[in-house]
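Our consortium's second objective concerns turning raw sequence data into structural hypotheses that experimental partners can test. To show how far this objective has progressed, the report includes one record in full. It was chosen at random from the queue rather than selected for favorable results. The single chain below, 460 residues long, was entered without modification.
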Amino acid sequence: MGFDLDFTHSNIEDFGISFGTNFNIRNIFRGTENLSFNLNNSIGASKDIGDPNDSFFNLFELGGNLNLRIPRAMLPFKTERLIKKEMIPVTNIIIGSTVQKNIGLDKQYYSGIYEVNWNSSKYSKVNFKLLDFEYVNNQNISNYFNVYKNSYDKLNYISSLYNLNQSTIDQNGDLIIPEGSDTFINQVLNNETTLESGTDFYKNVSSILERKERLTENNLIVGSSISFNRNTQENFLDEDFSQLRIKFEMVGNLFNELLRGGNQNSNNKVEISNILPSQYTKAEVNYIKHILLNNGDVFALRAFTGIAIPYGNSNYIPFTRSYYAGGSNDNRAWKAYKLGPGSSNSINEFNEANLKIAFNLEYRNKITGNLNGAFFIDFGNIWNVNDNVDDESMTFDNLSDLNELAIGTGIGLRYDFNFFVLRLDTAFKTYNPAKEKNNRWFTDFSLNKAVFNIGINYPF
């Protein structure tokens, strides 16, 4: 049995306390099976979230998971010829749940995984998820515009110009949440205001509603996936190796077909208690190469591409399964979720899409003792493909859209503590696709616009 205690502070949480416990039982069925149970409870305080009349601790989250590890392959079909004992197969059965209060939309998460892992060769591993289940239930949708303030501010500005209904605004002239904001959106899209369809502001309102529906809709995800991972790294200190990971995922196919018929709505889509089970196909390729130079320095590169195509029951990819760009392990000149999609210069709090391309190049050199330096170039962006987003600045239509690959360059310092590396990177926006085409190079290349990233261990 173990316990842990965490104290946290973030941009949405002034102060937080988290208490966790884990309980492990080894050899529970006398066949070297291991059962582990983890429980975590956290409370926090934020002056910007929740009811101001609440107590000091107005944020709450409770989560737990149960994991049974079985040292053999347990599948509903014969696997002796494919998965041999010397491949050290392991079956994991994992179930988990999390409940949040006054955090975002007060989500409830339920998840379940049934997977088998085995070593197909000395350097290769295979992960087969027979069942990958996730259910996201939003409990407080009316809080959306309190959470996603950028969308609200944009909508509120448009309202100040075109809103004719005084009952939707407060004494300061701001849209009332949620009644006022929802009413104004409906009035605009029903042509009940002076805002004409086809204008940029009209498109903005339509986009705000589209994103609201995407992020507040409950998600039911039932699928399977298989991953192949080849890693030639001999040990943690080996700096001359390559990694290749290929993943293919299918969601909703068999599950939705089993439900089709008695559970179809008027749009000929499978529906369960007003929830549309997701349906999409996803593929990813991730390649990493480290080259040890004669002087002991290291040249590292990474190439990633991933795409998820919705179809059938879905018009888009659930937020939890979509891609984002930026952050300390991605394109470091942009903060996480702040890059893309495409050249849109979107100001949303969380920008996501269903296609991602990323390249990273890094030269790592020793400075003195355990202190190392690095020079890096990051390329990448995200786009929407074959989903419900029509904005051309956000979509990938042809190869010419590759000119929207954002480029960030920078330098870094890393201190090696032997058991982990503390990393500080400073990155500059070298090529910003959100700018006009003749103004994309080096316009944000200055120290006051640099992005500083602190990380543990190397990004790749």
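The partners drew two points from this record. The chain has three domains: 1-139, 141-216, 230-460. The two ends are 33 Å apart (CA to CA). Both points have been shared with the crystallography group to help prioritize constructs.
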